[in-house]
Specification:
alpha/beta; FAD/NAD(P)-binding domain; 7-stranded mixed sheet; 5-stranded parallel sheet; 23 strands; binds NADP nicotinamide-adenine-dinucleotide phosphate
Length: about 325
């Protein structure tokens, strides 16, 4: 026998929930996966519009921006703003609009054609949603050199903001030539006695202002046209082997910390089966952040876009929430 429960939605709509044939609860109107600037903005808009919203993030929010020491190009902060502080402000704003923020990692999003809803698996339990905004960003890339796996979290780190203080008065190396590597190299000079910046080319990808800050910092020594060939250590990391690409010469350098900022890969696995991706694995969305799966919207760094910044992530998040609202209202 079928049994139904009538539910009054947060926007005043009534929904019928089948309680007797294994169909899951529709726990939320909107589930946001990812707590970086895109996810937080989407949650702020969704919560403010009155939708029952939860945001899942394994770190409780922050994303890449939350591990960035200082952000100098976010409007409204002419002297820069600390990344963790900015993200905490966004999280507090989301909570103030009734959004639940939970320390969960979304493992898989499943779409059910039967009732056009979603199941969101966070590992130990499955939640229901009428719409999903996926903003899980990117994952840090590794070098793929001998010794790297062994010394992950034993000297090798992807987060200077989190681990920098462990290297007070030590020598550390930073690998990469983009905004992340250069910004974090400067940050690390607060603690380390010397920061070696190892970059595979002679030119930096980072913005000019950031390059200037690196060039004028006496604690930073640049090793350009150079690559890390291997890392070594005992219990913890003690050094790296670096090859000069111009001379072919290899040198062993003593470093206690190695910070990798060699780019990011899209964190697309939980929704891969529901979206289209480009040749690099980034999700292809429409201008309104919609995907080929109705009700699934993708925002932020995980989507294909020309500029990955906090400002553009915030715009994506707002657009995704607006589109999710439109989708929910159209479905009644
Ligand atoms: P990125 O711009 O992709 O830079 C990655 C760097 O790693 C590049 O310099 C690249 O070298 C190097 N690299 C890649 N693979 C390597 C390998 N196997 N071995 C050695 N080096 C390797 O990444 P990002 O710096 O993390 O920046 C990502 C995005 O976030 C960018 O759009 C950036 O502007 C933005 N961001 C902005 C800010 C800010 O404006 N405040 C701060 C952080 C990040 P090549 O240059 O030779 O390719």
């Amino acid at each position: 026998m079928l049994a139904f429960e009538v539910k009054l939605g947060t926007r005043g709509y009534l929904s019928l929930r089948n309680t007797d044939n294994g169909v899951r609860d529709l726990d939320y109107d909107i589930i946001v996966a990812g707590g970086g600037p895109a996810g937080m903005t989407a949650a702020i808009y969704s919560g403010r519009a009155g939708w029952k919203t939860v945001l899942f993030d394994p770190m409780g929010g922050g994303g890449q921006a939350g591990t960035t020491d200082m952000v100098y190009n976010y409007p409204g902060f002419p002297d820069g703003v600390s990344g963790p502080e900015l993200m905490e402000l966004m999280a507090n704003q989301a909570r103030a609009f009734g959004v639940k923020i939970e320390y969960e990692e979304v493992q898989k999003v499943v779409h059910s054609d039967a009732d056009a809803g979603f199941k969101v698996d966070v590992g130990h339990e499955v939640h229901g949603a009428r719409a999903v905004i996926y903003a899980s960003g990117t994952l840090p890339r590794k070098l793929g050199v001998p010794g790297e796996e062994k010394y992950l979290a034993k000297g090798i780190s992807f987060c200077a903001t989190c681990d920098g203080a462990l290297f007070r008065d030590k020598v550390v190396a930073v690998v990469g030539g983009g905004d992340s590597a250069l910004t974090e190299a400067v940050f690390l000079t607060k603690f380390a006695k010397e920061v070696l910046l190892i970059h595979r080319r002679d030119e930096f990808r980072a913005g000019l202002a950031t390059v200037k800050r690196v060039e004028t910092n006496p604690k930073i020594k640049m090793l350009l046209s150079s690559v890390v060939e291997s890392v070594r250590g005992e219990e913890v990391l003690t050094g790296v082997s670096v090859r000069d690409l111009k001379t072919g010469e290899t040198r062993d350098l003593d470093v206690q910390g190695l910070f990798l900022y060699v780019g990011w890969s899209p964190n697309v696995e939980p929704v891969r089966h529901l979206v289209e991706t480009d040749e690099y694995g980034y999700v292809i969305t429409n201008e309104d952040m919609s995907t080929k799966t109705p009700g699934l919207f993708v925002a932020g760094d995980v989507r294909r876009k020309p500029l990955r910044q906090i400002t553009t992530a915030v715009g994506d998040g707002a657009t995704a929430a607006w589109s999710a609202e439109k989708y929910l209202l159209e479905r009644g």
